[in-house]
Amino acid sequence: MEAPAAPRNPVETELTVTSPEQMRELGLKLAKLLRAGDLVMLSGELGAGKTTLTRGLGEGLGVRGAVTSPTFVIARVHPSLGGGPPLVHVDAYRLGGGLDEMEDLDLDVSLSDSVIVVEWGEGKVEELTDERLQVRIHRAVGDTTDEVRHVTLTGLGERWATVDLGVLTA
After folding, report:
1. What whole-number distance in Å separates Cα of residue 18 and Cα of residue 1?
2. In this predicted structure, what is the pLDDT of residue 52?
3. Taking the CB of residue 112, how many other CB atoms lie within 10 A of it?
4. N or C end of the chain, less CB within 10 A?
5. What is the number of other CB atoms lying within 10 angstroms of the CB of residue 91?
């Protein structure tokens, strides 16, 4: 009897972003690594740059529509303008969590055929897949005009085991 395969260690990359334009550019670069079925979970304080990063992802994926914060609609679907996957942008801040609530959003796309980006998804959407990219954006809080963000990208599961996240720092 063969022993079960040991889980792969997460793939992790850290980088520093010093402006909203660099955050958008990070999204453009990251889009090149994404494919249908990918789940990207974004976390960070208010104003950290989650939506700015997603705007770059949408631009890089070549999707239709302005990528804006989906706070009041909870989710937006941005269809591809080419042959790529649609971008599903979710703000899970007000969701209790879980796959059932995602399905209840009545998105008109198959989640496995889309790139799904979830803001505020920690503890809520992990059950969608064991294979996901977690993006944590840290910034100074309080009364500051500091634009510096420390971004940690962690790829979990087989999907991300062979992806070189280091290309994002180039």
Report:
1. 52
2. 95
3. 12
4. N
5. 23
